[in-house]
Specification:
The structure holds two protein chains of two kinds. In chain A, 6% of the residues lie in helices and 56% in strands. By secondary structure, chain A is mostly beta strands. By secondary structure, chain B is mostly beta strands. Chain B starts with a helix and ends in a 16-residue tail after the last strand. The chains are: A mainly beta, B mainly beta. Chains A and B meet through strand 15 of A and strand 6 of B.
Chain lengths: 409, 250
């Protein structure tokens, strides 16, 4: 009789569905222009494994990311970019009009293409290429109620994670060699203090359809700031990262007008407990117009986006000290989708800083070989500000090409 | 006397003739009433050199008067596995479409005005994949009665009424007994023959005819794509909530 529960458990496990997917990729980057003390190239092996278990209305998901940097393996000049991260491990139960979820996961919020200023739920992995999106999962619980065309959600986040950085010889370690980064996050309150999010999102059934989302937040902000324990005069100093509390309102919206998408992301943060950080706002406006069957079956999308960031109190950190790149910037670019069997596309454009005379140009190409190998290539060129201490100024003039080959399963 | 006989003969011919609109209406009727459908779909892309690529998808459709709702999930190739495409079709305005990109966990709104673009690099356009809806076409005159391989067929002509259609004319061959569409010739914006779709493997499921295979041949680039429906079930009791945006992230 005591075997019955185990038998039932085994039977239900066999009846449930497991789904496994992921990839193994090899990335090579060559930095054509870079500071002489830093590595001129880099090789990274990455692996992702996602397992989904589903039975009826219940789903459990696990997502593991692993990375091996070649310098960490073969050289004394380690980049410290090797890790294994469990980014997702959560359970979700779907009711008729409701959903509950608990565990560690990754979310996406936003509408724009180049930078999603409202997408601050998960911290970004700082040991990686800053031009890639690589988010770290965080512990949270969620309850959602679904209406006919919308979703009302309450989310409580329980975790603020340390963000490690790569070591000095890595080209994307932005600080000088004598700056030692302490990766333990500093905060006035416990890092496990809950952050509350209340969001409402939906779509209109109007002539010009709108997807809208509004998020109210109380708790830790996604923006972080750094402090040094001594002035930057060439002697070793320690750098620390700080988190602080805010009341924040964010919204992201997309309107469809024929072949044109109009996008808006806005946020306003009222800082609660930090003497260094001012209340601030961030705005992003975007337009995307698609020319279908531009050449043959190919589509060409023209994209323009504008970003504006401002702080409201003097004597506190500004966009420069916060290393906010998109403070008064214009992006103009395009996406050429070949619409072929290999899913090939070329995306490129220029981000022009209208305050600090700084430009960033890039072109990315991706395609598929024999249906199993994904190929990604890019070229980037950054012309940093000459006299302002921006993030790109710390990086220096930068030019790179990269190739990524990924086997998906 | 001869003119009277001619008049009577013409009247009889007109009385037995069937209009293009009536054929289209009957074709629509024999394929309607499934309420909802769930199926596995396989898309076989063949290039001009004869090389094949296979794409697998899961498909759910909800039949609605104002326009169908559909959810497509890509199962292969592996790098797009989990990508979902949700579409709300509308008769009198642009469709609502969203794409879910699992790598980014992102739901993206799609501008859907132009339906003539290729679907996943295949010879099918988005327009070809939406369910046949008689209101989307204009009809004139009577269908032509012809015999193909010993079977009586109606050859009907219809003109898409959307200015965003990729076609100026469609000529369909419809079985005169079952009113099932057997073939459609598509004419492009220059009024030249562009593609031909051959419909086969029809099955009658719960008194509703369902298509089994469509092969689309592009006459301008010599490529073809075959769409095969597998394990299709209808009247599954799907509801509007099964096509809520929330299903993209499930």
């Amino acid at each position: 009789m005591r075997r019955l529960p185990w038998l039932l458990l085994l039977t239900s496990a066999l009846l449930a569905e497991f789904d496994i997917k992921g990839f193994v990729s090899l990335e090579s980057q060559v930095y054509l222009t870079h500071p002489s003390q830093k590595h001129g190239q880099n090789f990274t092996l990455q692996q992702q494994l996602e397992i989904t278990y589903s039975e009826g209305d219940f789903e459990a998901i696990g997502l593991l990311n692993a990375q091996q940097d070649a310098y960490d393996l073969f050289s004394n000049e380690e980049n410290e970019r090797t890790f294994i991260r469990l980014d997702e491990l959560y359970g979700r139960y779907n009711f008729e009009n409701d959903m509950v979820m608990a565990g560690r996961n990754i979310r996406f919020w936003g509408a724009l293409e180049v930078r999603n200023i409202v997408d601050g739920f998960n911290p970004q992995e700082m040991r990686n290429d800053p031009f890639e999106t690589d988010k770290m999962g965080v512990m949270n619980v969620q309850y959602s109620h679904y209406t006919e065309s919308g979703e009302l959600s309450i989310i409580v986040k329980f975790e603020e994670r340390d963000q490690k950085m790569a070591a000095f010889p890595y080209v994307y370690y932005f600080f000088p060699t004598f700056v030692n980064y302490e990766d333990t996050l500093q905060s006035e309150s416990s890092r496990y203090r809950p952050t509350l999010y209340l969001s409402y999102s939906g779509s209109t059934d109007t002539e010009y359809a709108v997807d809208y989302a509004l998020i109210l937040q109380h708790g830790y902000d996604s923006q972080r700031y750094f402090t040094l324990d001594a002035p930057l005069v060439g002697i070793p100093v320690n750098l620390e990262q700080h988190a602080y509390l805010v009341n924040k309102i964010s919204t992201y919206n997309t309107m469809v007008v024929g072949n044109t998408l109009l996008k808006v992301e806005v946020l306003y943060a009222d800082v609660i407990d930090d003497p260094n950080i001012s209340d601030y706002m961030h705005l992003g406006l975007g337009v995307e117009y698609t020319l279908t069957q531009f050449i043959g079956d190919a589509n060409f999308g023209l994209i323009a986006e504008y970003y504006y960031y401002d702080t409201f109190e003097s004597g506190k950190y500004t966009d420069l000290e916060l290393f906010e790149i998109f403070q008064n910037d214009l992006f103009i670019g395009g996406r050429y989708s070949f619409n072929d069997a290999d899913g090939s596309s070329i995306i490129g454009g220029a981000v022009l800083d209208l305050d600090y005379d700084e430009q960033s140009y890039y072109v990315e190409y991706e395609t598929r070989i024999a249906d199993i190998l994904k190929v990604y290539m890019d070229y980037r060129y950054i012309e940093p500000s000459k006299d302002m201490l921006t993030a790109f100024h710390l990086l220096g003039r930068h030019q790179r090409v990269s190739l990524n080959l990924a086997y998906h399963f | 006397m001869i003119s009277k006989l001619l008049m009577i003969g013409l009247s009889i011919t007109t009385a037995f003739a069937i209009s293009n609109f009536e054929v289209a209406k009957k074709s629509d009727e024999v394929m309607s009433g499934y309420r909802d459908a769930v199926s596995q779909m396989q898309m076989i892309l063949v290039n001009a050199g004869g090389q094949q690529r296979v794409r697998d998808m899961k498909m759910k459709v909800l039949e609605r008067d104002g326009g169908d709702k559909s959810l497509m999930e890509f199962l292969s190739p592996s790098d797009v596995k989990g990508t979902k495409f949700l579409s709300y079709e509308h008769a009198n305005k642009d469709d609502d479409q969203w794409l879910y990109l699992p790598a980014l966990k992102r739901v993206k709104r799609i501008a859907s005005r132009n339906k003539s673009g290729s679907f996943m690099g295949s010879e099918f356009s988005y327009e070809d994949l939406t369910a046949f809806n008689i209101e989307k076409y204009d009809y004139e005159g009577n269908a032509k009665e012809i015999t193909v391989e010993g079977k009586k067929m109606y050859q009907t002509v219809r003109t898409p009424n959307s200015k965003n259609s990729g076609y100026t004319k469609q000529v369909a061959l419809v079985d005169a007994k079952t009113f099932l569409t057997m073939k459609v010739d598509y004419y492009d914006r220059k009024s030249e023959l562009f593609k031909t779709a051959v419909f086969s493997d029809y099955k009658k499921v719960e008194d509703v005819w369902r298509i089994g295979t469509i092969t689309m041949k592009n006459h301008q680039n010599d490529k073809k794509t075959t769409l095969v429906w597998k394990n299709e079930t209808i009247k599954n009791g799907l509801k509007e909530s099964d096509f809520h945006k929330r299903v993209l992230k499930k």
